[in-house]
Design brief:
The chain has 193 residues and is α/β, with parallel strands linked by helices. It has a single domain (2-192), classed as Rossmann fold, CATH 3.40.50.300. It is built from seven helices and seven strands; from the N terminus they run βββααααβαβαββα.
Length: 193
């Protein structure tokens, strides 16, 4: 479903170039539940943004992206996108790029894209970051349910507990992929109790 080969990303601050991703190569198969972990600044969110194509698309294009995979007629897709933009009250932001939005607005775009259809792929950056433990467990149980139904999930988290809901853990350090480990089936079914 997703294949990355030697992906690199950096940014410049004056004369200094800081690397956030270094020669990342990985495959994510349909039906995987992948967790990306690592300390702050390791490149987790940058990797998720590469997977989501967030750097190249406007808000409306981001929401339309999963619909385009379903071969729906353009007019139908445009109507669905317009409805979601209105539902999340982000119509005025439709032609902006994610780097022009606040963090909360970026989160809304991600949620809007996820609910516009029954997703084949769900990308989540710290999905339970500001939630209390009961809500966090409900979100992770929902992710497990979606995954059992065939949705491929890639989440970024600092939470070891949330990581155990997945089937596979990737760990980044200083932009390098340092761990790619399959979890035992029991660990992947924690939320299925």
């Amino acid at each position: 479903m997703i294949e990355l080969k030697n992906v690199e990303r950096s940014y410049k601050t004056g004369p200094t170039e800081t690397w956030v991703l270094r020669r990342i190569g990985l495959s994510i198969r349909e039906g995987d539940f992948v967790t990306i972990m690592g300390p702050s600044g390791a490149g987790k969110s940058s990797l998720l943004n590469v997977l989501a194509l967030l750097d190249d698309l406007t808000v409306a294009e981001n929401i339309d992206l999963p619909l385009s995979y379903k071969n729906l007629p353009v007019k139908e897709r445009q109507g669905m996108v317009a409805d979601i933009l209105d539902r999340f009250q982000i119509v005025a932001k439709k032609d902006l790029f994610p780097n022009q939005l606040s963090g909360g607005q970026q989160q809304l775009v991600g949620i809007a894209r996820a609910v516009v259809h029954a997703p084949a792929l769900l990308l989540a950056d710290e999905p339970t970051g500001n939630l209390h433990s009961t809500q966090a467990r409900e979100i992770m149980d929902l992710f497990c349910e979606l995954n059992r139904a065939g949705t491929t999930i890639v989440q970024v988290t600092h939470s070891e507990e949330n990581a155990r809901y997945g089937k596979r853990i990737l760990e980044l350090r200083d932009g390098w992929l340092t761990r790619d480990e399959l979890l035992q089936p029991r660990a992947a079914e924690v939320g299925a109790k």
